[in-house]
Amino acid sequence: MSQIETFYEVMRRQGITRRSFLKYCSLTAAALGLGPTFAPKIANAMETKPRTPVLWLHGLECTCCSESFIRSAHPLVKDVVLSMISLDYDDTLMAAAGHQAEQSLEDTMKKYKGEYILAVEGNPPLNEDGMFCIVGGKPFLDQLKHAAKDAKAIIAWGSCASWGCVQAARPNPTQAVPIHKVITDKPIIKVPGCPPIAEVMTGVITYMLTFGCIPELDRQGRPKMFYSQRIHDKCYRRPHFDAGQFVEHWDDEGARKGYCLYKVGCKGPTTYNACSTVRWNEGTSFPIQAGHGCIGCSEEGFWDKGSFYDRLSNIQQFGIEQNADQIGMAVAGGVGAAIAGHAAVSAIKRAQHKGEQES
Amino acid sequence: MIGPAQLEQRYRQIEREQMAGLPMLNPALSVRALGFREFEGRRLGALLTPWFMNLMLLPGEDDRWCEGDSGEKRRLLLPSGSYEFIHGWDAHFGGYCACSLFSPVFEFADQAAAEATAGAALAALFQAAEPATDVPAEKDLAGQPQQLSRRGFLTGLAGGSAR
């Protein structure tokens, strides 16, 4: 390999102790659902593999993905992952500015040609030749295409890069589009959410470092390890749904008893994300636990699906269509035991808990 | 103690009352408790309704599951792997634990298909774990029988501790 430092070297230079490092490895193994036996593997990869250069571009976005990422639960994530993944270019976080910053983008692209990961936060607007988002005097669209050309893999951070999000909501005056509309020749890992959960973001990156490949993706391009279950599947209020106990109005008896929020607009039954298992802010809580329904922020076009407080009523086609890892068709009695068996085994696999540590 | 028959009765009542008219219901399906069997002093089976299909764990004699447990999660180690169940409480029949397989259940065209799937799910549940294929390096671990790990032994014995 070249003279790129390993993660471990970078980390030691940052004054991080080995004990903290190993703690991070085991936490990450748990977050990835791999179990504690994988912690040494992660540690080994970080000690021996050269750090992965990451270029982090910002298009039309609000920086909530960056905010989420730098607030990862474990204090080390900030130090370890941020310095280790080597954000060679991130206009929010890097020290360089102006021409110097744009030069560092070019330098990194040249130096690590074909080796770097391109992380994209936000998306490009296509209208007026991309004039609605200018970076360094040029349309973001150009920068995105330019940086994608020699990238090893591309991560679409958040709902903007993955689906378009609010700037692509009707009538979408700037013609903002998700990045897969303009980058068509590279694998794109979608990590949707507004923002995505910090542990999910660092987990995806750490997986790529450890195993040297991109994680298994569903049909929509999302990592299966974090997006194969709906909020509804693991929601702690689920027993109330099953028993038909709903919050009918805000602050009614049911609300005080912590009943299911479906009738006041919760999108949990159609939203694929890890909020009800990983939760937020070091596993403290998530919207439903705070008494508000899920708004479905990690689903495509969630701004255009009516009010956050509208009850889901078109769940029928939505539920099946969106269920990327399922059978993709109705299970009819006449079709035979094989399909029922396949549906059953997929359901069992989804329900299985892979990590052995506290979730 | 509550059995499959009472469970069916209770959820048919919920279907008629609380769930009436909600778009979550698959009209092709009806409430059915399936395949309940003894498991470590408790009973485990599948509950199919027009709005969900769950694994249901009913308490054993020594369990003192109460309303306050509702929403707590517990791990259950089965031959095919570890599963997370959520505690629930019903005013009529008391505490139980559930693990969601499907909800909503629109992928099932008819009752026979849903029941066949529930049966297949229970069979798969009690089949010994095969090596996982979704993680590249996990092959190394295939030789370790999961149900014999110390953690598994202890959590299995204690029924998994809810945190």
Structural summary, described in words:
The complex is a heterodimer of chains A (359) and B (163). Chain A has 359 residues and is an alpha/beta fold. Chain A has two domains: 51-226, NADH:ubiquinone oxidoreductase-like, 20kDa subunit (Rossmann fold, 3-Layer(aba) Sandwich); 229-359, Cytochrome-c3 hydrogenase, C-terminal domain (Cytochrome-c3 Hydrogenase, Chain A, domain 2). Chain A contains 16 helices and eight strands. Chain A has helices spanning 7-13, 18-31, 39-48, 64-69, 75-84, 98-111, 127-130, 140-148, 158-162, 198-211, 224-227, 238-242, 253-256, 275-278, 315-322, 337-351, and strands at 54-58, 87-90, 117-121, 134-135, 138-139, 153-157, 188-191, 352-353. In chain A, strands 2-1-3-6-7 form a five-stranded parallel beta sheet, with helices on both faces. In chain A, strand 6 (153-157), helix 9 and strand 7 (188-191) form a beta-alpha-beta unit. In chain A, helix 1 (7-13) packs across helix 5 (75-84). Chain A starts with 6 loop residues before the first helix and ends in a 6-residue tail after the last strand. Residues 317-329 of chain A have low confidence and may be disordered. By secondary structure, chain B is of the alpha+beta class. Chain B has a single domain (4-130), classed as Yope Regulator, Chain: A, CATH 3.30.1460.40. Chain B has a six-stranded antiparallel beta sheet with strand order 1-2-3-6-5-4, with helices on both faces. In chain B, a hairpin with a 3-residue loop joins strand 5 (81-90) and strand 6 (94-102). The longest helix of chain B has 15 residues, at 111-125. Residues 133-148 and 158-163 of chain B have low confidence and may be disordered. At the A-B interface, helix 12, helix 15, helix 16 and strand 8 of A face strand 3, strand 5, strand 6 and helix 2 of B. Strand 8 of chain A pairs antiparallel with strand 5 of chain B, so a sheet runs across the interface.
